Amino acid sequence: MNNPKQIAGEKAASFIKDQMTVGLGTGSTAYFAIQKIGARVKEEGLKLKCIATSIESENLAKELNIPIFGFDEIKEIDITIDGADEVDKYFNLIKGGGGALLREKIIAYITKHYIIIVDETKHVDTLGKFHLPVEVVQFGWQRTFDHLQKLGCEIKRREKNNEVFITDNGNYILDCNFKKIENPEMLQTTIHNIPGVVECGLFINRTNTLIIGKPSGEIEVLENKR
Q1: β-sheet bridge partners, residue 50
Q2: 79-105 pLDDT, tens per residue?
Q3: Are 134 and 140 in contact (CB under 8 A)?
Q4: Is 153:175 a contact under the CB 8 Å cutoff?
Q5: Alpha carbon distance 180, 114 (integer Å)
Q6: Model-level pTM?
Q7: What angle do CA 134, 24, 39 make, to 5 degrees?
Q8: Strands 202-203 and 93-94: what pairing?
Q9: So which residues are the catalytic ones?
């Protein structure tokens, strides 16, 4: 049996060409894309400028001798390859399962071609089965929690290894179970209007190419014709 995440990640890496500026995503699927990019840098001598969405991905890239740059040197990105926790039929996403949603969204918004890689279990008709991550500042987070709860969701403050999870930006994540998100654009706007919210894991109208890996080894490539 093939690893769907690996074949999707490696397929996405084939879109990268010499001299490109590349955004490196975070998570188990993006891991395989970064590995493949590292192999191409080594074998083909690709000259790239890369920026990572997390400290974890940045460290992996450095191990593979992928050149990493900062925002002081990068204003626009040619291609970003990242995973998603859910993607609907309109190419809307829930991201943030790995806790890097803020950095991922900053990078998504300066990317010309945004490639999302998933296995087929992440491709859904309607978002919401995966709990929506909302990154919030630590100050007054209890009241931010209350405001979010009024939107009709069940919420848990994220923990990892029995400790409160802290993002790379020093914030908390509240995982919100909406069960079904019928209007993701409206929900995103509503959440952004709550004081204390830094960012939410809804990525609306960003995806250009969706690559879906399947256990059979088949790869489905869908283009968003927006």
Answers
A1: 22, 68
A2: 999 999 999 999 999 999 999 999 999
A3: no
A4: no
A5: 25
A6: 0.95
A7: 150
A8: antiparallel
A9: 104
